[in-house]
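Practice record 12: protein with NAP.
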Amino acid sequence: MPTMHMKAMVFPRYGAPDVLTLRDVPRPEPHNDEVRIAVRATTVTAACGLMRRGDTAMARVVLGLFRPRRRFRILGIELCGVVDKVGKDVTRFRVGQRVFGFAGMHAGANAEFVCLRETASLAPAPDGLSDLESASLVDGPTTALYFLRRAKLAPGMRVAIIGASGSVGSAAVQVARHMGAHVTAVCSGNNAELVRGLGAQEVVDYTREDYAQRGVTYDVVFDTVGKSSHRVANHCLVKGGVYAVTVGGAGLVALDLWTRWFSRTRLLFGYSVEKNAALLEVNELTQHGALRPVIDRQYPLAELAEAHRYVEAGHKRGNVVITVAAG
Ligand SMILES: NC(=O)c1ccc[n+]([C@@H]2O[C@H](COP(=O)([O-])OP(=O)(O)OC[C@H]3O[C@@H](n4cnc5c(N)ncnc54)[C@H](OP(=O)(O)O)[C@@H]3O)[C@@H](O)[C@H]2O)c1
């Protein structure tokens, strides 16, 4: 059989957004336990930039020491599309089904087709939401659920969400409200209206005020952008309170363990990787109107480098989505 091809944005070496190039590459064939998805929408996240730059030694051990290994040369961790072919052992999905999901470090969604294991983080896409909207509701809400659950956020508790206007943050504001918490959003004044619209009861403009020095206490400080620290959060956390942070490394894993036993307040760090159950929950939250997408900009696949430049500036509001026309 002749090899079929597809369009994909490939990064043959680490570097600035210009390394991303549109190429014709072989269309992947699903293994027995995989589904092939015709991608309709994907995104650019902060993590995509890290991978493209080959940032952190740890990442390079997996992705490739001096240049990305061949199988990691297509970025894109969030997607929405239609199952176009299934392996012979697949039972969870059928051809023609609309799905949304998370490709993790395997990535590959910045292309017309991607193969994922049927047991990967994949679920039926939310009815009533467009492909772009569904793709934007993968990593943010599932990460918010992961951290806020681990922090044991409960009705009536007070939570401060740092980076409330970002992808994880904008989802966290909505999820925390849904969990019955009192939400203070920490963002710049430009985004105050946005986060209030998502349900935040209070807003702190980080360019004018220090959230930790307002004489207000919180049960949970959720730092979605890694701009604060456990030390700073200690000024405003109640005894037994939690500082949860999405950005860090091995040092924070050690601190996470240490503070479980030897500190007045807890530092919580981890990686939201297994998102299967959370995606089903996201689907339900959207159906109940408890979660809505926040889309800042939209680019076609061929303009992926431009999207990376925008995301890298660090000021996106919610999500940056990419349209992919499969065919
Ligand atoms: N551990 C995990 O499992 C996990 C999962 C997902 C993501 N992450 C990581 O989480 C981080 C956040 O991801 P994201 O996609 O949500 O980020 P993002 O959308 O790129 O964040 C951008 C937002 O951050 C705001 N911001 C910048 N500086 C701020 C500050 N000092 N205080 C408050 N807000 C500030 C910006 O608002 P202004 O324009 O107003 O400054 C902007 O709206 C990334 O590093 C990502 O790799 C980790």
